[in-house]
Amino acid sequence: MASLTPEDKESMNKQEGFSKQAFFALNTPWFLQFLALEPTEWLEKVKVPVLAVWGSKDLQVPPVQNKVPVEKALDKAGVYYETFVFDSMNHLFQKAVTGGIAEYASIPTTIEPEVLEKMVEFIKKR
Q1: What does the domain layout of the chain look like in residue ranges?
Q2: What is the value of pTM for the model shown?
């Protein structure tokens, strides 16, 4: 923010949907560490069974980019695991049209029952 010109700052403030609070939250030590985190490095060290699930409309952690690396890391860990992609669900495991974050609050379901059923099934197997 400090490197922006006064004109750029003014322009940002006029942008619809711009939030200083959200912008500054992106610059916290926690968020910067989160961005640098490589999950597969941690998954390779897991010693317990893992159920990894995604929604097919997840735009935050898209299964098309994440499922295979997770499976490879869990193979390396040598643990029992299952992966599953729920059709037409978003990041919160709600049936979704777009998968966009703005849609979350408009969906009455907190989490689809079939996701909970999959979790219970996995736990009972182990």
Answers
A1: 1-37, 38-125
A2: 0.76
